[in-house]
TrEMBL record:
Annotated GO biological process: methylation
Keywords: Cytoplasm, Methyltransferase, Nucleus, Transferase
One cellular component (GO) term of this entry: cytoplasm
Cellular localisation: Cytoplasm; Nucleus
Lineage summary: Eukaryota, Metazoa, Ecdysozoa, Arthropoda, Hexapoda
Domain of life of the native organism: Eukaryota
GO molecular function term, any single one: calmodulin-lysine N-methyltransferase activity
Enzyme kind, highest EC tier: transferase
Species: Cotesia glomerata
PANTHER family linked to this entry: CALMODULIN-LYSINE N-METHYLTRANSFERASE
Descriptive protein name: Calmodulin-lysine N-methyltransferase
Amino acid sequence: MASKKLGLKKTEDTDEIKKTTMAQRRWRLLARALTHSSEQLNPAEEEISVRRFTSFGLVNPTLLENAPVDPESSWYEYSCVIENELFIAQVRRINKTFTANELIGFNNTGNVCVWPSEECLAYYLLNNQNICRDKIVLELGGGMSCLAGVFVAKYCGPAGVTLTDGNVTSVDNVRCIVARNNMEDFVKCGVVQWARAAALLRQSANGNRVQVHPYIHP
Ligand SMILES: C[S@@+](CC[C@H](N)C(=O)[O-])C[C@H]1O[C@@H](n2cnc3c(N)ncnc32)[C@H](O)[C@@H]1O
């Protein structure tokens, strides 16, 4: 692309070319996901992928051999040792390949993996159990595992726990996890989309009485 045509100075021109190249590489990555290509990423493509590493190794998954089998998911035992104490929870991970329609629907990043930030939060709260003790705990955007909220419910003595995400598939998966860890009586799960919840809160601030709680998606 000629800088003359765009009326760009030399440095702007170089930046423009860099951006175009980056955009092209991102589109190629997306195309590969949509066509379900199993080709390995090359180093340049790895670099533009937002997910640069998978774990800090604080909470570690082991595949559960004797868990329910279905082609779209697998069960893992997530474990963490802090000062010689072992913490474990069984977690269902979604393995399915998403269709183009699902990918352009509501944010699907929480169904891709358990992100390292969720792992850190789980570890931090297990290591600082007083933060949640006797408190009402609400996890927002917890993805397909709500790993931190699950560990809090199991080990940190909260007064109540509600696990949420805006993605219906994630929340359905979290319900399975809560059931398998025998916490159905104590832990609520629901779809909460932040813009919608914020609008309800604004209405309630305007004097209307509105209850904001996770709604159960059909
Ligand atoms: C990068 S994922 C992280 C998931 C999980 N916390 C983890 O670390 O494994 C971001 C999550 O935020 C949720 N999310 C994004 N925008 C949202 C919104 N506007 N309302 C509710 N949830 C949202 C997505 O559905 C997704 O599960």
